């Protein structure tokens, strides 16, 4: 049986769903000759590490209790069953993860799975690649930091997987890698890459107020922890940057033209997420309703579109024909058109659910299985 030891960072919507998938896929994975051994799980404050990380990992009953505890909003330090695991808090966490990476990385191998939404994980990830660890990301921030961080993280392409950073569970990165590795140059990507903004645009088009729709998107697990990351266009810009860098552009986030759906006065330095959702956002209802109406007069609909073409990389609202691939998009679906030498007249089109905890966690799990060859 091939053992894949892993540490999960982030047990929010996606991380919890991943743990549940890992537990429920035990017999399927056993048939494939694979065992996923979870040796550590952390959130923003605590790290739980298996006492016997070389052969046992954290038991499934405890992994499911981790999910229950986090869903209740409690701290991981309230977990029962001491002896099987140890808990490290705050500043001890990072040191412990790097120690575990040094112990397991070059012996059994170890995968760090980042399902957080934080840029604080970049420091750990940068260090554990030096211990030959693998990295699997749903979190876009590590790949959208500086070019130096990016180059370090992708320096061993076999050891990094990040399919869920763009299009959730859709095979976007894998498809692009296949095209690029065959020498077929990609010259244009256009698409709708935000499940939240796709859902928002199609629901607003159906007459619902933006403020109500964004709250639904949050409760459906589509938004970032702070939905302003979606509404500012920043989350789509991160996806665009990941794609542009994959195509070979040496650009940073500040090279991307980004249209925000809210003004600076509603930014995170001015009001909390709760204040924004409680009263700020309803002030945006009228403007978007008018824009939708104006577009409809021309037989068009609004979509939040990402365009990458040569050195041009921009994300923002466009009026598109109702009866076009972008215009027909509904709900949280993403669509991506890829134009290359082989796909010149008719693009390669990838479409489907582009957000949600289940599909995202499936994408992460498939990435972990995809690196199985690196483990014994
Ligand atoms: N939801 C979706 O449809 C998709 C999400 N993604 C990405 O998946 C990631 C997770 O999203 P989601 O689960 O919705 O987010 P949540 O906000 O639900 O969960 C985030 C988790 O990360 C933890 N965390 C925060 N800081 C750190 C840190 N420094 N170290 C370790 N853990 C930390 C949080 O801890 P605490 O509980 O203590 O706050 C929380 O458990 C995001 O990066 C998102 O962009 C990607 C594709 C689709
Ligand atoms: N908030 C994101 C989640 C996936 O990356 C989105 O809405 O697309």
From TrEMBL:
The keyword Oxidoreductase appears for this protein: yes
Record-listed E.C. numbers: 1.1.1.3
Active site annotation, chain numbering: 239 (proton donor)
Pfam families assigned: Homoserine_dh
Keywords: Amino-acid biosynthesis, Methionine biosynthesis, NADP, Oxidoreductase, Threonine biosynthesis
Cofactor: a metal cation
Domain Homoserine dehydrogenase catalytic: 171-369
Positions annotated to bind NADP(+): 10-15
GO molecular function, one term: homoserine dehydrogenase activity
Binding site for L-homoserine: 224
Pathway terms, separated by semicolons: Amino-acid biosynthesis; L-threonine biosynthesis; L-threonine from L-aspartate: step 3/5; Amino-acid biosynthesis; L-methionine biosynthesis via de novo pathway; L-homoserine from L-aspartate: step 3/3
GO term, biological process aspect, one: methionine biosynthetic process
Substrates-to-products reaction catalysed: L-homoserine + NADP(+) = L-aspartate 4-semialdehyde + NADPH + H(+)
PANTHER family linked to this entry: HOMOSERINE DEHYDROGENASE, PTHR43070
Similarity field: Belongs to the homoserine dehydrogenase family.
The protein, known as: Homoserine dehydrogenase
């Amino acid at each position: 049986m091939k053992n894949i030891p892993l540490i999960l960072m982030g047990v929010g919507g996606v991380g919890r769903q991943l743990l549940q998938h890992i537990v429920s896929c035990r017999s399927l994975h056993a048939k494939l000759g694979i065992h996923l051994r979870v040796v550590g799980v952390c959130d923003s404050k605590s790290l739980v590490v298996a006492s016997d990380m070389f052969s046992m990992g954290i038991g499934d009953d405890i992994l499911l209790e981790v999910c229950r505890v986090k869903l209740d909003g409690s701290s991981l330090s309230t977990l029962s069953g001491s002896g099987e695991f140890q808990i490290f808090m705050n500043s001890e966490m990072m040191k412990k993860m790097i120690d575990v990476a040094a112990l397991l990385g070059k012996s059994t191998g170890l995968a760090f799975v980042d399902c957080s939404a934080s840029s604080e994980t970049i420091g750990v990830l940068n260090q554990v690649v030096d211990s030959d660890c693998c990295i699997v990301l749903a979190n876009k921030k590590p790949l959208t930091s500086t070019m130096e961080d990016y180059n370090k993280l992708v320096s061993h392409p076999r050891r990094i997987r990040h399919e869920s950073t763009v299009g959730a569970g859709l095979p976007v990165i894998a498809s692009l890698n296949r095209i690029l590795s065959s020498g077929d140059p990609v010259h244009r990507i256009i698409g709708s890459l935000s499940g939240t903004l796709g859902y928002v645009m199609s629901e607003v088009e159906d007459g619902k107020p933006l403020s109500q729709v964004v709250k639904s998107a949050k409760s459906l697990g589509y938004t970032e922890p702070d939905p302003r990351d979606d509404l500012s266009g920043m989350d789509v810009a991160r996806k665009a940057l990941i794609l542009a860098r994959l195509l070979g552009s040496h650009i940073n986030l500040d090279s991307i033209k980004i249209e925000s759906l809210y003004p600076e006065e509603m930014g995170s330095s001015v009001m909390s997420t709760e204040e924004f959702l409680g009263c700020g956002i309803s002030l945006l209802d009228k403007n978007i309703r008018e824009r939708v109406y104006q577009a409809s007069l021309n037989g068009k609909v609004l979509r939040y579109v990402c365009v990458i073409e040569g050195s041009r990389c921009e994300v923002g609202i466009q009026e598109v024909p109702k009866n076009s691939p972008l215009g027909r998009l509904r709900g949280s679906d993403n669509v991506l058109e890829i134009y290359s030498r082989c796909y010149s007249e008719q693009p390669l089109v990838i479409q489907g659910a582009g957000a949600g905890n289940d599909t995202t966690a499936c994408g992460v799990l498939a990435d972990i299985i995809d690196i199985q060859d690196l483990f014994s």
